[in-house]
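Please review this one.

:::
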Amino acid sequence: MLKLPPPIWALLFLILTAGASYLAGWPVVPWVHSLFVGIGLIAVSFIAPVWALILFRREGTQINPTSETNNKLVTGGPFQFTRNPMYLGLVVLSLGVAVATGAILMFVAPLLVFATANWVHIPFEEAKMRRQFGPAFDDYARNVRRWL
């Protein structure tokens, strides 16, 4: 699962749940379906990841989560509030798509994005950070939550 980047997994989960929704006849949850709220969530989902990407570029460290090493432990910007702003953005993005469509099966996508990030990608990255940055990463992890 680590060979494909997390945004590709999110896209695959959205495509799979859209296909399943199509085959099921797009059953909708009326009290959750809101195009306006969905588009708002999608728009907001880009803030933390883009901020993080800009910060990574400025700090000169790797963006690829499967890189062998990272040049720097970045703890500023959105990383003050969450250790995983990019994954958080993917979860919120997929939730926004689900809310915008209102289709019951589309709500499986954000759950799958969360599960893949939380139990596959993040543990790999955190182990790498612990090996590379030791006590500095442990202190950071103690002070900043994994998600929010």
Observations:
- The chain has a mean pLDDT of 96.
